[in-house]
């Protein structure tokens, strides 16, 4: 597994060269967890597409997962059950790896025959049993023997599961995957309960870590299964109505302990060793683990008695404590002390190879989790370090937990006291960097990364607070692999660790990614409130980073959350979850109701032969082509005349209200010439030459509505002037119905309006106007275009719109 010095034969490369007839060199068999670099990498971005409930989930390690409703044609049907041969194959694959080298002797199951027969009878009657015993009491060995006896009791056979760091929901998914053949399919809660309800199997569940209501949930969901559960006394007891049989497993008797020690040593004990073993039995309360470790101590003593320099090549003398007893002449080696027999980890580790001791240091740094033997050469730096696993298993310093190994009970504390944790941060960092490289390699399948989830999560947990950058990198590469491998419990834990590490490291982009993935995970699990919170946090962070692609992905997922919860869609989205273009535009957006005709954006000025209703406005897109007709100019002047009459009436009302308004109101902001504008092509023939208000500012840009009461000094005039115009007059018009300016004489006489506008009321209205004053088309405009869409409808119909004055048609 050396990433820099890979041999072609070792990793699948051949030496055929350019000659196709040259036979390829035979390749060695590989461990299923060892990557095969000879296979061509499909792509650097390893994406996995799977079905979760009625969602189609695409796990993308680059930009984040994409989720969408699963098309009807891609929804899987009812999964079939696996055959007996297939179940046996999966059971063998779930066993811990076999250590390299000669096969280790298998110790017998002593003094457990009565418990074994009772468990088989209870399971045959369909009863579930909870086996409780302290760590090191031999619970796993007893479970293995009972599983062999119950192979033919149930129609779906025996299912072996590990409860180590698993929740009830995860165990239900594990049980469903062990019986039903449903690749890349994770059923929703309701479908999952239907599938496990039909399973009839003997479920052997080791290392369960929960009880109470969680255990009741597991048992109620599987009424056709008989469970054999092994746990420790510190786990919560089941509820009173769980109908579980209880069985406590204690230590061995004195004779059984001596027999087990002799089987571990491989010979009969002499009187001195028997007396020492008797004292050890009293000290350890007959736990089988202590006698297996004591047998390893006696085997090492036998090697020293045969060869006093047997462990010198391992640096034994340098690693021994100062008070260690050893005869330098090699004539006799005394027995270990009783303290060494009760806590033998330090003495046993001192006589192991350097690779084995380095492996123990990595295990201590990873919280007791032992990396897979395929990773040991890269971590330790020794090409033969994978053989260290056989040494550790032979000394009983590690035990099997599910499909991997971890330090045996009490070993980690003993190694901590011996100084094996002095360089734990450095070892944890090295393991995290290695796993980040390995998990992100395109040749490594998600299932293999999921099999190493315990060590990867341990490395993450140890580096979140200290080495946040390395933890972020590891979580970023491992989390998508956990998702693709359908180990969603590990996926969630990796995401939460990565989110915390990203927050500590200040990596906003990575924190947004973890928020997004947590939202996707919550959506798949039906936790809509959690999904909405996580996705909104991700969208907010990505918006601060101007990550448009990530925001679109998050908003699509948020639209699905809104659809499932029955709530309204987020602002700026369509019903399909697509983004409205103006919702994310960096520039200002139009008003919510659109741009009215009278407030259209400025257009190029007319040709000199057309009549102009007001001064030219600075243009954003250059001069207009000389194609406008005389008729268009006449129509524009007619519209301007009607608009001017309407403005006079509105101004009169504004003057009256301004004189009576409170002087404490804050002044309105003014529209300046710095605002940008673009042409509005929809109303070019009617309102091309009218001064327009800038419409590029959003409704929340802080510009107050001009329909509010004006400031004391601005009560008679609007709050701003169009760009390029003269300053407005400080005084209002003498007559409210008289326009402030007259349009220039048109080249043709305008058509008489068909409807005569009504006269305004003689007295000003009591309520303030719903729209601010509009700009009078004159040579010196003194007002600003209104911002209310309602007034634009009046201006856009000059022939029959009410103008508030009788003089409007005459103009």
SSE inventory with pairings:
Layout: E1 48-52, E2 55-59, E3 66-69, H1 84-93, H2 113-124, E4 129-132, H3 139-149, E5 158-162, H4 168-179, E6 185-186, H5 189-197, E7 202-206, H6 213-221, E8 226-231, E9 245-248, H7 254-265, H8 271-284, H9 288-306, H10 316-319, H11 338-342, H12 345-350, H13 354-365, H14 376-380, H15 388-394, E10 398-401, E11 404-407, H16 411-417, H17 424-439, H18 446-451, H19 453-463, H20 468-484, H21 488-505, H22 508-524, H23 528-544, H24 548-565, H25 630-660, H26 789-795
Parallel strand pairs: 1-6, 4-8, 4-9, 5-7, 7-8
Antiparallel strand pairs: 1-2, 2-3, 10-11
Describe this structure as you would to a colleague.
By secondary structure, the chain is mainly alpha-helical. Among the domains are: 84-96 and 104-250, P-loop containing nucleotide triphosphate hydrolases (Rossmann fold, 3-Layer(aba) Sandwich); 252-341, no CATH class; 597-811, no CATH class. 38% of the residues lie in helices and 6% in strands. It has helices at 84-93, 113-124, 139-149, 168-179, 189-197, 213-221, 254-265, 271-284, 288-306, 316-319, 338-342, 345-350, 354-365, 376-380, 388-394, 411-417, 424-439, 446-451, 453-463, 468-484, 488-505, 508-524, 528-544, 548-565, 630-660, 789-795, and strands at residues 48-52, 55-59, 66-69, 129-132, 158-162, 185-186, 202-206, 226-231, 245-248, 398-401, 404-407. The termini are far apart.
Q: Give me the oligomer status.
A: single chain
Secondary structure tally, helices: 26
Distance between the termini: 92 Å
Low-confidence stretches: 1-43, 317-330, 570-643, 645-651, 653-811
- As laid out across the biggest beta sheet, the strand order is 5-7-8-4-9
Give a quick account of the main beta sheet: strands, pairing sense, barrel closure: 5 strands, parallel
Strand content: 5-15%
Tell me the structural class. Answer: mainly alpha
């Amino acid at each position: 597994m050396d990433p820099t010095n890979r041999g072609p034969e070792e990793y699948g490369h051949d030496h055929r060269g350019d000659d196709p007839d040259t036979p390829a060199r035979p390749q060695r068999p590989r461990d299923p967890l060892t990557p095969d670099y000879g296979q061509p990498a499909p792509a650097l971005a390893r994406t996995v597409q799977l079905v979760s409930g009625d969602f189609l989930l695409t796990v993308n390690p680059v930009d984040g997962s994409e989720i969408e409703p699963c098309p009807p044609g891609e929804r899987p049907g009812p999964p079939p059950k696996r055959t007996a041969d297939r179940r046996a194959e999966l059971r063998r694959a779930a066993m811990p790896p076999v250590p390299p080298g000669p096969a280790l002797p298998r110790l017998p199951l002593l003094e457990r025959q009565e418990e074994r027969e009772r468990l088989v009878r209870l399971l045959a009657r369909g009863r579930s049993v909870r086996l409780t015993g302290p760590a090191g009491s031999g619970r796993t060995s007893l479970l293995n023997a009972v599983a062999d006896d119950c192979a033919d009791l149930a129609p779906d056979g025996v299912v072996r599961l590990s409860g180590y760091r698993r929740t009830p929901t995860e165990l239900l998914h594990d049980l469903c995957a062990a019986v039903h053949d449903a690749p890349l399919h994770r059923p929703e809660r309701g479908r999952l309960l239907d599938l496990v309800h039909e399973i009839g199997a003997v479920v052997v569940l080791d290392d369960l870590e929960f009880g109470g209501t969680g255990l009741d949930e597991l048992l109620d969901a599987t009424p056709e299964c008989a469970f054999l559960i092994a746990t420790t006394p510190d786990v919560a007891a089941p509820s009173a109505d769980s109908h579980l049989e209880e069985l406590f497993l204690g230590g061995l008797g004195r004779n059984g302990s001596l027999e087990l020690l002799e089987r571990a040593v491989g010979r009969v004990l002499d009187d001195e060793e028997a007396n020492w073993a008797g004292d050890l039995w009293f000290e350890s309360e007959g736990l089988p683990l202590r006698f297996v470790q004591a047998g390893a101590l006696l085997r090492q003593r036998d090697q020293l008695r045969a060869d006093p320099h047997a462990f010198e090549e391992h640096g034994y003398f340098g690693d021994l404590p100062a008070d260690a007893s050893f005869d330098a002449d090699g004539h006799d080696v005394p027995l270990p002390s009783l303290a060494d027999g009760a806590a033998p980890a330090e003495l046993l580790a001192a006589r192991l190879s350097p690779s084995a001791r380095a492996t123990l240091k990595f295990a201590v740094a990873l919280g007791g989790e032992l990396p897979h033997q395929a990773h040991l050469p890269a971590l330790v730096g020794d090409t033969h370090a994978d053989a260290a696993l056989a040494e550790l298993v032979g000394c009983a310093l590690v035990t099997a937990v599910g499909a991997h190994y971890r330090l045996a009970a009490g070993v980690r504390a003993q190694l901590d006291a011996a100084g094996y944790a002095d360089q734990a941060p450095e070892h944890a960092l090295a393991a995290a960097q290695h796993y980040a490289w390995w998990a992100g390699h395109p040749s490594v399948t998600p299932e293999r990364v999921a099999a190493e989830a315990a060590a990867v999560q341990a490395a993450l947990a140890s580096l979140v607070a200290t080495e946040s950058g390395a933890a972020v990198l590891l979580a970023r590469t491992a989390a998508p692999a956990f998702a693709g491998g359908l180990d969603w419990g590990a996926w969630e834990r990796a995401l939460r660790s990565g989110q915390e590490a990203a927050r500590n490291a200040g990596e906003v982009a990575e924190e947004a990614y973890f928020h997004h993935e947590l939202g996707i995970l919550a959506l798949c699990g039906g936790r809509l409130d959690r999904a909405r919170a996580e996705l909104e946090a991700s969208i907010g962070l990505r918006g601060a980073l101007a990550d448009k692609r990530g925001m679109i992905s998050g908003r699509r997922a948020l639209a699905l959350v809104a659809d499932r919860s029955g709530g309204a869609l987020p602002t700026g989205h369509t019903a399909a979850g697509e983004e409205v273009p103006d919702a994310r535009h960096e520039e200002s957006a139009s008003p919510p109701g659109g741009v009215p005709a009278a407030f259209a954006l400025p257009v190029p000025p007319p040709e000199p032969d057309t009549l102009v209703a007001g001064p030219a406005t600075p243009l954003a897109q250059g001069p207009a082509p000389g194609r406008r007709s005389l008729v268009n100019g006449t129509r524009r002047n007619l519209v301007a005349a009607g608009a001017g009459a309407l403005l006079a009436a509105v101004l009169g009302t504004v003057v009256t209200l301004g004189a009576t308004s409170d002087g404490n109101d804050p002044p309105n902001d003014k529209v300046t010439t710095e605002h940008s504008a673009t042409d509005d092509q929809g109303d070019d023939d009617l309102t091309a030459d009218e001064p327009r208000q800038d419409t590029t500012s959003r409704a929340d840009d802080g510009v107050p509505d001009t329909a509010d009461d004006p400031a004391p000094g601005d009560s008679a005039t609007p709050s701003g002037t169009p760009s390029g115009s003269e300053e407005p007059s400080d005084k209002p018009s003498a007559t409210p119905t008289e326009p402030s300016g007259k349009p220039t004489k048109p080249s043709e006489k305008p058509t008489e309006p068909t409807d005569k506008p009504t006269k305004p009321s003689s007295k000003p209205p009591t309520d303030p106007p719903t729209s601010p004053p509009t700009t009078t088309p004159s040579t010196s405009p003194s007002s600003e275009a209104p911002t209310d869409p309602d007034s634009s409808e009046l201006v856009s119909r000059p022939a029959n719109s009410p103008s508030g004055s009788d003089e409007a048609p005459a103009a």
